[in-house]
Amino acid sequence: MLTVDGLGKVYASHGRRVEAIGDLSFEVETGSFVCIVGPSGCGKTTLLRCCAGLLPPTSGTVTLSGSPVTGPPEGLAVVFQEYGRSLFPWLRVADNVDLPLRAAGVDRAERRRLVDEALDAVGLGDAHRAYPWQLSGGMQQRVAIARAIAYQPRVLLMDEPFAAVDAQTRADLEDLVRSVWQRLGVTLVFVTHDIDEAVYLGQRVIMLTSSPTRVAEDLTIDLPDERDQLTTRGDPRFTELRGRVYAQIQKAKLEGKAR
Amino acid sequence: MTAVLTRVGLALGLPVVLVAVWWFASAGSTDFFFPPLRTIVEVFGPTWFGERLVDDVLPSLGRLAAGYAAALVLGVGLGVLIGSNRWVRAVTEPVLEFLRAIPPPVLVPVLMLVAGIGNGMKILVIISGCVWPILLNTVAGVRAVDGVLEDTCRTYRIRGTLRWRHLVLRSASPQIVTGARQALSVGIILMVISEMFAASSGLGFTVIQFKDGFQIPEMWSGVILLGLLGVLLSMLFRVVEHQVLSWYHGSRTAQKER
Amino acid sequence: MNALLGLAGLLGFGLLLEVAPRVGLVPERYFPPTSTILGELAGQVGERAFWVAVGDTVLTWLLGLAIAVALGVVVGVAIGSVPLVRAATSSTIEFLRPIPSVALIPLVVVLHGSTITSTLILVVYAAFWQVLVQVLHGVADIDPVARDTARSYRLDRWARVRYLTWPTALPYVVTGVRLAATVALILTITGELVIGSPGLGQLIATARQSGAVPAMYALIVVTGVFGVLANVVTRAAERRALHWHPSMRAEVPA
Amino acid sequence: MRRHLAALLLAPALLATAACGSDEGQSPNAGEADKVTVGVIPILDVAPIYLGVEKGFFEKRNIDVTLEQAEGGAAIVPAVVSGQYQFGFSNIVSLLLAHSEGLPVKMVSNGNNSTGVDGEDFAALMVSADSPIETAADLEGRTVAANTLQNIVDTAVRASVRKAGGDPTKVKFTALPFPEQPAALASGQVDAVFVVEPFQQAVLGQGGRTIASSYVDTAPNLTVASYFTSQRILSENPELVKRFTQAMQESLSYANGHPDEARAIIGSYTNIARDVVARVTLPKWPAEVNRDSVQRVADLALEDGLLKEPAKVGDLLP
After folding, report:
1. Which residue from A119, B135, B139, C14 could staple onto B75, CB 3.0 to 4.6 Å apart?
2. N- to C-terminal Cα distance for chain C?
3. Which residue ranges does the record assign to the ABC transmembrane type-1 domain (chain C) (predicted)?
4. CATH number of D155's domain
5. pLDDT at D7
6. Is residue B11 a part of any domain in this protein?
7. How would residue C249 be classed by pLDDT, with cut points 50, 70 and 90?
C-alpha cells in the first residue's frame, strides 16, 4: 500500500515561494492501477517524484508498505516521460535492462533470463544488441518499460510515459502496460494529462486541481477488467466517465485561472 | 569504384603536389639553411633508424606516454571528485581557471628547480601541462550529467562503482575525450620543450644538437620526424576516440536526423 | 554566493602556498611563500623593464593572433566556399594541423635568431589552424535552404558571402578566435622562453639564469593573469557575438 | 612543403616586423661611419670589445658598433651568415663545425685565450667537495654538465679525461646552462660541471674543487673563441673587415694591459656582483689567434667524432 498523507511541496527560488503542491492525501491499494490526471502544470511530476523518493516533500509524508519514503525505496521502479534521456545511450538495449539487476546483485544466469523475458514481453526480443538511439521513440519507451519489468518491482510509477509518442504507438503501449500490470500484479501509479488514457487504463482516476494542488475527486472506474481499444472506448460508460473527468479538469483549470 | 578513386585522388592529390613542389623547388638549393628535400630524405633514415631510435626517440615517447597517462588518471580522478560536489566546485573553480591559464612551458624552469633534470622532471612537466584540460573538461562533463539519468540511477538503486562507471564517467566521456585531445597536443609540445632545457637524450635534445652542430639537413629531418609523430599520435587518438565514443557520435547523428 | 566561495578558494590557495613553505612542508628555497611572490611582483610592477617586457609580449601575442585570424578567415572562406577545393585540401589540413609548432623552433632560430619574428612565426603557425578549422566548420554549416533561397534570388557571389556565408560562419570565427588566443599566448611565452625573443618569457628565462626563484614565480603569476584575461575577454566576446545565435555552441569533439 | 606554406603564411608577419628584423646588405656611404652589429655573449670573454667601443677604437676607424647579446655561439653563427649581424663572437669548435658543414665563415680576430696556468684558469672542471672523483679519468661513466654540447666545452673536458688516462667516450654530457650548474652539482644531479667565471667562484663558494683546467689541458695558451664574419662581408667589403680587425686587435691589447678597466666594464654588461668581478680570474686577450691551438682543437674534434673529416683550418683562420 502506498499512502500519501498531507503532502505539500514549496519551491523557493530567487526569493519567490511557489507552492506546487498544497495538501495532498490519497492511498493506493497494493496491486491496484491508479491514474492521476490534472491540468498541465499542476504538479503531477512533483507528486510522482515525491512518491519515488527523488524529492523530499516540504510537509506531509509518503509511506510505502508502512515505512516512510525518504529516498528511493527498494522494489520501486519509475518509467520517465523523457525516454530519450532515461536510457543510457552508451549501453546496448539488453545492457540497459540489465544494469539495475547488476546493481541489485542478481546472478548472471538469472539476469539473462529476466532480460530476455522482459524484452520479449515488450516485443523487442530481437533488439538486444541495438543502441537505444537506433530505435524509434515508441521502441525506446518499450525498452524503459522492459527495464522496469525485469526489475520486478512491487510498485511501478509512470510519469506521462506516452506524452511524446505518436497516437498509434500510444494505443499499443497502453495495452502493453495493462497486460504487464495484470501479469506482474504490481501496484501501478500512472500520471498523465490525457483524460481518455486515464479512464481507459486505470481502476481509479485521481483528479488534481491546479497548483497549489489538491485532490479534486477520486473516481472509481467501473469498466470491466478486460479492456481493448475498440470496445472499451466505444462503451457508453467509458464516455460517461470520461465526460465526468473532463468536467472536473475544466473546473480545476477555471479555478486555477481565477486565482 | 570511381567514387573511391576520386576520394583517394582528392586525399593524396594536394600532398603529392606540395611534396613535389618542395622537392623540385629545393633541388638546386645552395642556401645552407634550405637544403634540397632530397638531401633531407637521404639523411632521414641513417639519422633516425638506428641507435637514435632506441636512445632518443623511444625515451621521449616513453616519457610522453608516462606523463600523459598519469595526467589522464589524475585529471579524470580529480575532475570527477570536484565535478560531483557543488561546493568543492565553487571553491576550486577560480583556482583551477588560473592554473589552467598559465602557459605550461613556463613551469619548466620551476619544475627543474624542484625535480631536477632527470626523467622525473620531464614527466612532471608533461603532467603539469596535460592535467588541466583533462581536469576542467571532466569537471564540466560530470556537472552536465543528465538529470533524468541521474534519477533513473537513484530509483533503480544503481550506486557505487556501477554508478561511477556507467553513469558519471560515461556521461562525461565526450568532454573527457575533448580534454584528452587538447592535452595530447600540449603533451607533445612539452615533451619537446622539456628536452630543450636540460637533457642528454631525447628527440627535442637531438634536434637542438643538430642545430648547434650546424647539421642542417639532419635538423630538418628531426623537424619532419616531430611533425610525423604529431600526425601519427593524432591519428592514433582518433582510432581510440572512435572506439570510446561511437555511441556519442551515433546518438548525435540520430538526433540530427529526427 | 559562488563568487564568494571562489574568492575563498583563491584565498585558501594563497594561504596554503604561504603556510606550506613557512612550516617547512616544502623547501622555501624552491617554493617561496605567497607574500614573497606578491612582494616580488609589486617590485617588478614598479620597473620599466617589466612593462617593456609586457609590451613586447602583448605585441607579439596580438600581432600573431591578428595575422592568424586574418589568414584563417580568408583562407577558410576561400577553401570552404568551393566544395572541390575543400575536398582536395582536407587531407593536407588534417596532416599539417597536428604538427607541433615547437618542432619549428630550431628552424626559426636558425633563420631568424632570437627575434620577435621567430616567435611570431610559431604563434601564427599554431593559432592559424584553430581559426581555419572553425571557419571551415562554419562555412560548412550554411543552411541549405538559405543557400537555395540566395541562389533563387540571384544574389551574386559577393552578396552571398556578405549576407549568407559570413553571418553563418561568424559564431565559429569567434570560437576560433577564442581558441586561437589561448594557443597564441602559450606559444608567445614559449617562444620568448626558449628562443629568447624579448618579452615576459625572456624575463622568466633571465630570472631562472640568475636563480631568482621568487621573481620566476611572480612572472609566472603574471602570465597566468594574462591567460585568465584572454579567456574572460574572448568568452565575453563570444557571448556577445553569439547571443542571437540559436545554439551557444560548446566545443564538440569533431 | 611546410616551409613553403610557412613562408606563405608568414609573408605579412615578416612585412609587419621588418622594422625589428635585419637590415642586411647595407652599403657604406662615403664619409659616414659604417654601422655594424656584432653578436656577442654576455660573458667575461668579450670585455675587450665593450672596452674598445668605449675607448673609441672602433669610432676612430669609422665603425659604428652595436653590440647584440645572444644565447651562445651556435645562435650567432647563423645570424652572421644570414647577414643579421656583420660580425660575431663564437667558440672555435662551433666555428670549426660550421665551417666543416660548409657555412661560409671566416675568423677575423682573436677572441680570448686560456691563462695557460693549470689550476688558475678562468674555466675549470669541478666536482663537489665530498665527491670520490679525484681526476678527470674518474669521470668514466659519470655525468658532466656542459652549457651546450658540441662546442669547446665538451671537447676540452674530453681532452682532460684523455690526458688523465681515461676513456673520453665513456663520459656522459648533459646540456645545462652555466647558471644552473652549481645547484645541479650541489644536489648531485650531475657528477661534475665545467664552468667558466663567475660560476667558478660560485662552485668554489659552495666548497667545490677543481679537478682539471680543461682549457689548459687542451692546448698551451689555447684560443678559446674568436670574432668572425661571413665570406660575403669579406668579399664585399674587405676594407671594413680589415679596419674591424685592427680595432679588435687594439681592443684586445688594451684589455690585456688594463685588467682593472676590463673588470670595470664587465660589471656594465653583466649582472655579476661587484665583489665577484673583483675576484674572478680573467682570460688572456692576445691580439693574435693561436693557430697551433686551433689546429689542435680541430684534431681533437675529429678524434671525438664531432668533425667527420679533417677541418681545413687554414681556410677558417684569418
Report:
1. B135
2. 36
3. 54-234
4. 3.40.190.10
5. 44
6. no
7. very low
- The pLDDT assigned to C58 comes to 93
Residues 79-138 of C with CB under 8 A from B: 87-92, 95, 97-107, 109-111
Residues of chain C contacting residue B226, judged by C-beta atoms under 8 Å apart: 99-100, 102-103
- The dihedral built from the CA positions of residue D289, D88, D197 and D171, taken in this order, carries a sign that is negative
- Tell me what pLDDT residue C245 has: 54
Q: Which residue of D has its CA nearest to B214?
A: D98
Write the residue in B113, B198, B214 that is nearest to D77 by C-beta.
B214
Q: For A127-152, how does the pLDDT look when each residue is reduced to its tens digit (9 = 90+)?
A: 899 999 999 888 999 999 999 999 98
Reply yes or no on whether the pLDDT at D12 is more than 50. Answer: no
Edge-to-edge strands of the sheet including D123-127? Answer: D172-175, D143-146, D192-196, D123-127, D209-212
Q: Is residue D280 part of a domain?
A: yes
Q: Which domain holds residue C183?
A: 39-242
Q: Among D3, D93, D170, which would you mutate to test the B interface (most chain B Cβ atoms within 10 Å of its Cβ)?
A: D3
Which three-class secondary structure state does DSSP give residue C137? helix
The beta-carbon neighbor of D6 closest among C63, C117, C125 is C125
- What are residue A11's DSSP bridge partners? A18
Boundaries of domain holding B170: 36-257
Nearest in space to D164 (alpha carbons), one of D208, D216, D223: D216
Q: Are B40 and B224 in contact (CB under 8 A)?
A: yes
Of C96, C114, C209, the CB nearest to D70: C114
Task: Report pLDDT digits (tens) over D41-74.
Answer: 888 888 899 988 888 888 888 888 888 877 666 6
Chain B environment of C107 (Cβ under 8 Å): 219-220, 223
Q: How many domains does chain B have?
A: 1
CB contact under 8 A, B103 and C111: no
Whether the predicted interface score ipTM is above 0.85: no
